Amino acid sequence: MLKKLRREVIYLLVLRKIIPRLKRVNEVEDEIFPKQIAEHAKKTPKQVAVYFEDEKVTYQQLIFRANQYSHWFLKNGLKRGDVVALLMENRPEFLIVWIGITQIGGTVALINTNLKGHPLDHSLSISSAKHIIIGEEMVNNFHSVNDVIRENLQVWIEGKKVSSDYNNLNDTVLNNSKIFPNLDYEVTNNDVALYIYTSGTTGDPKAASISHKRLRLMPMTFIAAISPKKSDKIYNVLPLYHSAGGVVAVGIALTTGASLVLRRKFSVKEFWEDVDRYKVTIFQYIGELCRYLLNAPHNEYEKSHNLRIAAGNGLRPDIWDSFKKRFGIKKIVEFYGATEGTFSLINFDGKTGAIGRIPNYMKSTMNVEIVKFDIERGEPIRNKQGYCILCEYGEPGEALGKIDLDVGGFDGYVDKQATEKKILRNVFEEGDQWFQSGDLLSTDKDGYFYFIDRIGDTFRWKGENVATSEVAFAFSNIKGIKEANVYGVSIPGNDGKAGMAALVIDEDIDLKDLYFDLSKSLPSYAVPLMLRIKKQIEVTGTFKHRKVELVREGYDPSKVSDPIYIIDNQNKTYIDLNDEKFEKIKNEKVKF
């Protein structure tokens, strides 16, 4: 009873903070993200806004430098609504650039720093940018762009090493006024601030259109749940080109007057040294980072620190409590959401494994439903009347977010066809529209939501749905296995897809014991048929496992150099998959 009471009190207290903030966003349309930062520059000009390596940037310095980029934008004949592409690693200048451009109505396309060749060509092409700002460290990546795109871009290099082929941005910007330019218009919620790209794990990256309103809303729930103080220091190792690191973490810090501790890239080795050095109090995570830290050797600073809150998404249930206990972190704030989505969830009270909660008494005011989903057909199941069917408690289904047609619908992507593919119509009544998350979630009777799997990652074998997250969880409890990436592969003569796992191991594993452990913890249809041993698992820039390449490479031993093993149910073990065995599978002479 006390736990239930505590849960409701926490929920209602946070809700009490959110409602007036939400009301203000809707009523005060010109209080955009950069303007909130500028207010802190007026009130606390000497407060450090960003710590980066040995550099300290105060709020006043941040806004003065941003104003210089505003003047650069206008002097180059750019106008409200024009797009500038930004290709730069994490550092203060990244934030300064987009704050300066968006505060006067420009749009900044945040380009993934891992891209080269075709994906980079595609990202720049769909942005429609005529100018690109490139950090000196990213020039080699830009050299991979095709000639047609390069010829259509005016290139500006930020840094000390600038070849004569490109414009020197520093020389131009440093001479500009530090005072906000005179404008004959007001930038409001409706202006598009950023293009933030999807990770491109299932095809070319798509550019999500982020309005100033959306930019204000994205960190709002976190701020209500965390209540950051000006003395707080938020540690961010996530890429600034993505929403978690570039909007949520930045917003928690800079729109509240706190400090952002920025790092170029995540380092297991230096994480706790940084936390100690900067006296970090809040850490923005992606689940994989937590697992890396948990697998690392003991560090002298891992318990003697000021870190009180870890906030983020993707923290797996199997390491949740271990992570919290080992590092002495008092509060974990887990959330769920998509950059382009119409809804988000957040776990205010820290229940292990939950990605959020909507109490039953709030359900009618929220826009989230979970509907039955057909894995094989890749679409929601509909009843005789043609409408979607709600899932029962504990039943996995696709999460949908209602699109409010009264307030302008769904911003979606720059590519309108890609936007259209995410809209599901006539879901519960004629004419309604819902955003398809592409994720399988479940909920319980207390209103907690749980992540099951990405649609497309879940596969069907022997007539049963297999969630890759469930199988990965089974591997996580087995000694010697550091990491597991689970996916489905086609087997000639069989319907559906069979399970395969790419594994990273830190010691020799007994294949017979592995078979036993997996059979004990998984249903027979979910036990992987094949294993592939790799030195490392490829991830996206936001630390999500890449599966597309693994599925494409398959399990042909003549084409894959890594060791591959196949299940041997008769002897209850895994054995080498050799060319002879592969040919038998190919010719449908092996029964599974």
Question: Concise description?
Answer:
The chain has about 600 residues and is α/β, with parallel strands linked by helices.
Word description of this protein:
Strand 29 and strand 30 (573-576) form a beta hairpin. Strands 2-1-11-10-12-13-14-15 form an 8-stranded mixed beta sheet. The protein has a 7-stranded mixed beta sheet with strand order 7-6-5-3-4-8-9. The chain is globular and about 75 Å long. Helix content is 31%, strand content 24%. By secondary structure, it is of the alpha/beta class. The longest helix has 26 residues, at 2-27. Helix 1 (2-27) crosses helix 10 and helix 2 (33-43) packs across helix 3.
List keywords for this structure.
8-stranded mixed beta sheet; 592 residues; GMP Synthetase, Chain A, domain 3; single chain; 7-stranded mixed beta sheet
Layout of helices and strands:
Blueprint: H1 2-27, H2 33-43, E1 48-52, E2 55-58, H3 59-75, E3 83-87, H4 92-102, E4 107-110, H5 117-127, E5 131-135, H6 139-142, H7 147-151, E6 154-158, E7 167-168, H8 169-173, E8 192-197, E9 207-211, H9 212-217, H10 220-226, E10 233-236, H11 243-254, E11 259-262, H12 268-278, E12 282-286, H13 287-295, E13 309-313, H14 317-327, E14 331-337, E15 344-346, E16 356-357, E17 368-371, E18 373-374, E19 379-380, E20 397-402, H15 416-421, E21 423-425, E22 433-443, E23 448-454, E24 459-461, E25 464-466, H16 468-476, E26 481-489, E27 498-505, H17 511-521, E28 530-533, H18 548-553, E29 564-568, E30 573-576, H19 579-586
Parallel strand pairs: 1-11, 3-4, 3-5, 4-8, 5-6, 6-7, 10-11, 10-12, 12-13, 13-14, 27-28
Antiparallel strand pairs: 1-2, 8-9, 14-15, 16-23, 17-20, 18-19, 20-22, 21-22, 22-23, 24-25, 26-27, 28-29, 29-30
Helix pairs in contact: 1-10, 2-3, 3-4, 13-14
